[in-house]
Amino acid sequence: MEKREILIIGAGPAGLAASIEAAQTGAQVLLIDENDTPGGQLFKQIHKFFGSSKHKAGTRGINIGKQMLEQTKEVGVELWLNTTAVGTVGDKQVALVRKKEDGTSETVVVEAEEILVACGGAENAVNFEGWTLPGVMGAGAAQTMVNVRRVLPGKKILMVGSGNVGLIVSYQLMQAGANVVGIVEAAPKIGGYCVHAGKIRRAGVPVYLSHTVLHADPDENGEVKDAVIVQLDDHFQPIAGTEKKIDCDTICIATGLRPQIKISTLLGVKNGFIPELGGWMPIHDENMETNVHGIFVAGDTAGVEEASTAMDEGRLAGVSMAHQLGHLSDAEAADRKKEIVERLEALRLGPFGERRQNAKNRIVAEGKKHE
Questions:
Q1: 233: closest CA among 188, 182, 192?
Q2: Locate the FAD/NAD(P)-binding domain: which residues (predicted)?
Q3: pTM over 0.85
Q4: Considering all CA atoms of the chain, what is the largest pairwise distance in Å, rounded to the nearest integer?
């Protein structure tokens, strides 16, 4: 059995930020990720970030990720890649399956004084006839293929969902040479920011509002060859006679994320249902600590928002864990937390952010009930 002060599961924006924050206080940090490269969403995000200079405004996500990886090395974070958390063994003991250099795998049990679960979010699916055909995929999968693996998922792409993910990935696919033949949105208006929607409209991509995919049809090889979409009424029911066939070889689904809560649930963490943040998610307090002392959550696992928010939640968890371990004094921890919380509140300004802040307040209030 391996023993560490802090185990962080997930090396995305939240996990990276938390590992840096904790390790720079002198804490012993083990950061793991199931992928062969760390960084998570940051290395998919080739667009420039919004916000303030404190949130790296004007810097591309991939460059933010590179900067953070360098910081982890500087502060001495121990990083295990190709390592998957598969279950729990005992109190704060996590079973990990680690791929070795020779291609074989080994199971390692790590016991930690503090654990942060930052596993991110999972893409929601849309069930229509043909949704399991080759060529139907999540928008995040398509983004990974084109921005990380440099593989174009298709030539003629239909995007389902007009939130920021749907809009951004559509534009990035066009930059990579794909033809986005349309964006289908069940709501009567575009869900993402105007700056992203404007790029799509200027590029001439048709947007089908109040529409959904009725079915996808296969070609002779069993792969997507077209999709039939249909208009929806005010009750989101299909309107007969409004069907349209769209020629495409790929259908990308961008209909939101849900928190990845399997490991936190196995660790005994209680969940609450907050629709604005993706559904079922771990209950936690203002320090990102759950009902189980020493178990923390951050990023999309703690409620689906965005990379900048995930990083600050990770920093908040990192400070809290270091404080509990005695690496920070009460005054030092309080000052650092105050700074991070102020940045988080700034990120949650405006109509979109206000809803998220209110939702966060509800989950924190639930967390206080379990203290």
A1: 188
A2: 5-314
A3: yes
A4: 68
- DSSP for 156-181, please give it: EEEEE--SHHHHHHHHHHHHTT-EEE
pLDDT per residue of the chain (371 residues) written in tens, 0 to 9: 999 999 999 999 999 999 999 999 999 999 999 988 887 777 666 666 655 555 555 677 778 888 899 999 999 999 999 999 999 998 899 999 999 889 899 999 999 999 999 999 999 999 999 999 999 999 999 998 998 889 999 999 999 999 999 999 999 999 999 999 999 999 999 999 898 999 999 999 999 999 999 999 999 999 999 999 999 999 999 999 999 999 999 999 999 999 999 999 999 999 999 999 999 999 999 999 999 999 999 999 999 998 889 999 999 999 999 999 999 999 999 999 999 999 898 888 765 566 767 777 887 877 766 55
Paired strand residues for 296:
116, 289
What are the b/e assignments for 307-337, b being 16+ CB within 10 Å? bbbbbbbbbbbbbbbbbbbebbeeeebeebb
Q: CA-to-CA distance for 64 and 62, rounded, in angstroms?
A: 5
Residue whose structure tokens are 């799509």: 200
Task: Kindly report the backbone phi and psi dihedral angles of residue 239, in degrees, each rounded to the nearest multiple of 5, phi listed first.
Answer: -100, 115
What is the gyration radius of the CA atoms in the chain, in angstroms?
A: 21
Angle formed by the axes of helices 330-347 and 307-324, to 10°?
170
Q: Indicate the DSSP class of residue 284.
A: B
User: CB–CB of 260/246 below 8 Å?
Assistant: no
Query: Which domains are delineated in the chain?
Result: 2-122+257-369 (3.50.50.60), 125-253 (3.50.50.60)
Query: What is the rounded distance in angstroms from the CA atom of residue 179 to the CA atom of residue 200?
Result: 12
Give the span between the Cα atoms of 365 and 220, in whole angstroms: 55
Residue 292 structure tokens: 């189980």
